[in-house]
């Protein structure tokens, strides 16, 4: 029998915290059950599988990161919005490395489908990151497919820099922060003069 008070939200939050402490690859149902001092079966009455649990951590992380970015870019445009967006993106990845890593795991579309007894999804969630990104990019006035290409470039640059930084791969004595700032300035210049068509 599941321990009283155990909910999907509590389980996902604990899994997110565990991911930040130990890495998303070390989040298992058994490890989480030990944290709650229950049997694995107690958790399976709230989640379908380990993949479902990790998917939920990724979705929560996406919502958290989008909210942090939205707060950072509010009232800003152009270069200021890009820098605020990028800094919030990087800060979230540094503050929550396990959650950020969970966001990079491809989701099996069969797992992503909710059961009938799952609570309905908030339509505002999940699209928040897309909305914030679109708002930040508005000043650059890029139509699709250029907008899609530019967003992919930004995400690739941010993720690559963050991953290399987290792994200690920047051994040169130049300040990593100075390189980050220069990269953002270069991205702003590129977006401002994006080759159309």
TrEMBL record:
Entry keyword set: DNA-binding, Transcription, Transcription regulation
Residues annotated to bind DNA: 28-47
Domain HTH tetR-type: 5-65
Gene3D superfamilies named among the record's database cross-references: Homeodomain-like (1.10.10.60), Tetracycline Repressor, domain 2 (1.10.357.10)
Name by which UniProt lists this protein: TetR/AcrR family transcriptional regulator
Highest taxon of the lineage: Bacteria
Record flagged with keyword Manganese: no
UniProt keyword Transcription, yes or no: yes
InterPro entries: Homeodomain-like_sf (IPR009057), HTH_TetR (IPR001647), MT1864/Rv1816-like_C (IPR025996), Tet_transcr_reg_TetR-rel_C_sf (IPR036271)
Any single Pfam family the record assigns to this protein: TetR_N
GO function terms (MF aspect): DNA binding
């Amino acid at each position: 029998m599941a321990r009283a008070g155990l909910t999907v939200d509590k389980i996902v939050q604990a899994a997110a915290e565990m991911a930040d402490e130990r890495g998303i690859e070390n989040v298992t149902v058994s490890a989480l059950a030990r944290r709650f001092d229950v049997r694995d079966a107690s958790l399976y009455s709230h989640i379908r599988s380990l993949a479902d649990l990790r998917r939920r951590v990724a979705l929560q992380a996406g919502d958290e990161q989008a909210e942090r970015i939205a707060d950072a870019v509010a009232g800003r445009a152009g270069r200021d919005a890009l820098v605020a967006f990028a800094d919030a993106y990087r800060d979230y990845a540094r503050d929550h490395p396990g959650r950020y890593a969970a966001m990079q795991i491809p989701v099996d579309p069969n797992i992503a489908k909710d059961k009938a007894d799952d609570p309905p999804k908030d339509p505002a969630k999940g699209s928040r990151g897309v909305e914030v990104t679109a708002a930040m990019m508005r000043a650059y006035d890029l139509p699709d497919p250029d907008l899609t290409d530019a967003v992919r470039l930004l995400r690739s640059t941010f993720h690559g820099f963050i991953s290399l930084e987290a792994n200690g791969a920047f051994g040169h004595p130049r300040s990593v922060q100075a390189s980050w700032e220069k990269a953002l300035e270069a991205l702003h210049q590129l977006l401002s003069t994006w080759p159309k068509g």
